[in-house]
Amino acid sequence: MYLLGDKVALYDTTLRDGAQSEGISFSTEDKLDIARRLDQFGMDYIEGGWPGSNPKDEAFFDAASRMRFEHARLVAFGSTRKAGVDASEDSNLRALIASKAPCVAIFGKSWDLHVRNALKISLRDNLDLIADSVSHLKRHDLEVVYDAEHFLDGFKADPKYALSTLEAAAGAGADWLVLCDTNGGSLPHEVAEAFDAVSKRFDLPLGVHVHNDGDLAVANSLVSVEHGATMVQGTINGLGERCGNANLCSVIPTLKLKMGRQINAPDLGLLTSLSDFVNETANIVADPRLPYVGRSAFAHKGGVHVSAVMRDERTYEHIDPALVGNQRRVLVSELAGTASILAKMKEFGIDTEKDSGRHILERIKHMESEGYQFEGADASFELLVRRLNNGIKPPFRLEGFRIFVDVTGSNVSSEASIKVVDSNGTMEHTAANGNGPVNALDRAVRKALERFYPELREVRLADYKVRVIDSKDATGARVRVLIRSTDGERSWTTVGVSTNVIEASLTALLDSMEYKLLKGRKGEA
Fold it and tell me: Which helix (H) or strand (E) holds 418?
């Protein structure tokens, strides 16, 4: 069992509760990979799933039983026994024991509404289910975490009965009593009242498990700790059913950095990469506005903000982003001041002592009035700054291009013809087919440039986005194209704007190639 002291135990349920998020389906290998990263980070408990509920979870526990965990205890999740079935014969409890997990978490009903309407049994019988299940699992030398499902709602409806369900679990030998806000609608003061009442009555360590339906899961988890909880359950990035669970990526740094609690996570600097890894494994787009770990968490756009942060980061940052493995970002837009420009130039390694940044700022404001946006296109912005400040010249130039679209019956094909000239004046004229005009142009550009610069073979397109800037102009509207490219080691984004989507795409594409060559020459790629 977890040694309490003055520490808070971190209990991760990404692999079970997080997997109930809409649109997420972890494979067995996904779950094993995430479990390894969670253990590496320092989680105390990793809830792997519900053994016996599906073949995937059975395969996970079979493989996980052979893994060596450095920090975490593996937890198998399930429910109390079914009514009318002896604990020793209950298939759910048998699966928990067979999982070989050293710790099990079982949930039981705490709300009389659920007992009567969902289980359709007497309140007394529900107490027997809880006690029988916990005592049976304890006879198998397992650590038992008892999740009091819907406890917060049950406590508000009938506090006496809700507390009696905890007594049943505690009397049967449960190691933890976890108060759950399963519907996620409780307020912080209600959570505090419940924990105060429970902590006065029980000597067992308490945990908290809350959902985020009222957008208060993190706040309610922290309040619970202030009022007696020594275990916090949650998920990475707040994944979970409906509106999600308490986001451990917010809970953990707040506990350690702001509340001074001891946690078993030796390096908080791994937190952002852990968040990114789970998003990538789940195949979901990361929320840039997540506190602490989001891409925008320490991004500064307003000129006044940037100017102040450059003098003293405490003016607009609540912590040093490096503490959680994140980094400060200065965004450049029409809202920026010269401080933003100079900060970005410094970031690029460009000497700012001889430049006020004013002429660059004016150029940016003009370009953004035409539809450009450099917030998400750092590569195009760096090229622009270097062209204006250093007078660098592109290593190639475009002489012209043509696009042909051939429609034959139901088949549509595209061909792009392009002419480029390298820095020595050598021309390459080539053509390529594609499944659309932009794809054909992409292939033709690469085909031409790779003759001069073989290193461009490493570059591939990772993302392509088109946005209509002013829809009221209908088909004559300007479009903004963002292209994200990668060479396998780093990635970068470039932008192009035009009333012609082909021209906008070509601008972004050529910037992408030039950026790769710039970084290659500098030995940074």
Answer: strand 411-422
